[in-house]
TrEMBL record:
Source species: Rhodococcoides corynebacterioides
Membrane topology: Multi-pass membrane protein
Keyword Transport: no
Domain of life (superkingdom): Bacteria
UniProt keywords, alphabetically: Ligase, Membrane, Transmembrane, Transmembrane helix
Transmembrane segments: 27-46, 58-78, 90-109, 116-137, 207-236, 248-275, 337-358, 365-384, 390-410
UniProt entry tagged with the keyword Ligase: yes
One Pfam family here: Wzy_C
Protein name, entry field: O-antigen ligase family protein
Domain O-antigen ligase-related: 211-340
Compartment(s) where it occurs, according to its Swiss-Prot or TrEMBL record: Membrane
GO molecular function: ligase activity
Main location: membrane
Entries under InterPro entries matching the protein: O-antigen_ligase-rel_domated (IPR007016), WaaL-like (IPR051533)
Amino acid sequence: MLLRLTVLTALVLPANMVLEPLGASGYVAMIVALVLFGVWAASALWNGHDAIGCRHPARIGLTLFWLTTILSYLRMTGADTTARASADRWLLGLLAVTAIVCVTAETVTSTDRALVLVRTVIVGATVTSAVALWQFVFRVDPLDVVRSVMVGMVDNGGQTTFQQRGTLTRVAGNTFTPIELGVVTSMVLPLAVWRALVDRSAGRVARWLPCVLVTVACVLTVSRSAVLGLVVATAITVPFLPRHARRWAAIVVPTCVVGVFVAVPGLIATLASSIGADPSTDPSLATRVNNYPRVQAMIADSPWFGIGPATYLPDNALDLLDNQYLHSAVETGVPGALALVAVLVLPIVAAGTVACWARDPELRLLAAAVAAGCAVAAVSSAVFDSLSFPVFRIVWPVLVGLSGSVWLIARRTAPTRCGPPDRGPVRPAHTTPTEE
């Protein structure tokens, strides 16, 4: 219940509203996630569950990530009060990520339980997608009403609901920025498709409307990262769809793309100019490219431990690093960047392995959807500092935990599922069943 509440509050409530004493870590979803960690840890100490025995590949990456973070934290030197506070908040966030990953992997023990959790994810994604559509059409943020009734919480700042790109206004929904919304929705879309195909408790409209809304919201962010995420998600998910679904996808996907571009005048031109922009003239691309020499120098100054987790706090917005891999290399050193690669890639490998060899079609497609969502997170982290964004930090661990779930389900239900399918003994051609 706490896990589902964490996901729902992250996707439904505005993340910029925080409890002032807690600062940036005081948004509702983070508070619930920290309570979840407390309950999970207490249960493990009192032998309520076997936290050590629930092994899956994603835990290797998470362990390495913790190790490099702690080493960097302990080796921090000369950090001021602000940097120390930021590093402490980073550790709190990592506790929340750990709780979500571990609880998801341990409690989602079947595709039926996965469906319950995925339904919650899709409900939250549908709400934030509907909010984004409202923002895009009416240029008004309905979340202002929600913020006004969140008594005791203050605006932490940093949220950019509306951004101009070309002739269009980009929207962020319930997330911090349009880029975060584009990445999160493209991560969630494969799960929405899986739910639409396997959930027999809902009607056709109730199952497929969230897929449409999530896709539309992703496109309305007018984000290169969103387009990249959609391409990655589609490329991984479609080959694992049932045959009839692949046929429908060949018809529906182009139709939806054309429909969105026709319904939103100027979208094609804006996206095309954004994707094909010259790095020397596009401010966003130019900032990323110009940061490379500075990042190289910072890494050379402290290659093993970095400057400390979450302590890179530039005063100039042009100095922001829109690349989580570079962020980790600067803050936790080269080992930290390698640990980040592990924690992002190992869930893809685990879920992809199950998708290739599992016999249960529902489990195969779920594993493919999880691998696709994790792949979107890994690729998108190269174009924006993903772990700095509150909604991503809640949704991504759910996918990582689900990678552990499908791995454990496959191992438990059939030991041979992580290898080539067992076709049974080969009967000699000259024998008959009675002769055997």
